[in-house]
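As a warm-up, study this chain.
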Amino acid sequence: MILYYHPLSSYCWKVLIALYENGTAFEPRLLEDAAAAQTWLALWPLGKFPVLRDEARDRTIAETSIIIEYLGLHCPGPFRPVPEDADIALEARLMDRLFDNYVMTPMQAIVGERIRPEGIARDPHSVEEARRMLGKAYALLEERMAGRRWAAGDDFTLADCAAAPSLFYADRIEPMRDGFPGLGAYLERLEARESFARVLREKEPWWHMFPFAEG
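Now compare it with the structure written out below.
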């Protein structure tokens, strides 16, 4: 297994958490390296990351939720990303979509505005819309996850892999812990889990590049 990824990408973190949860052996290829970036673009010309290359099966897999489900199918181990119970599996997939679409996406829009190159017109309206969406998402998640230890219930799943990076980054931009104590406590549980704690340790050499690192 070869993973092409960027060390600060929230979506790359999502897949790294799944790999570390399962103890899956893989070869990391940082896209900071020009040769790795060239190979990655040849494998996935859309230019999105992460991308997983399974040399043994001659398969190239993209899109984080699909990568994680692929690992569950072809690299079975202690981590079960999608629960066996069909109804809980649907909840895990729904929560995965909620974190990706309504936390990760507006968070990235705000970051994108902060790093917009000089000379490109700013879009403060879109930033305010993104902040409003984060507030709506926080409220929905606070209510939906009441009484749960993890995103879909008692077990750590695909949804938690999505939640950890999205909430970690979003909290830097639109802090949640005071207004949404249940969600804040959940983020603290995620940060304490070894798979995500490892990702957070590994980000440190590049963390200064994140525009809200001191925010």
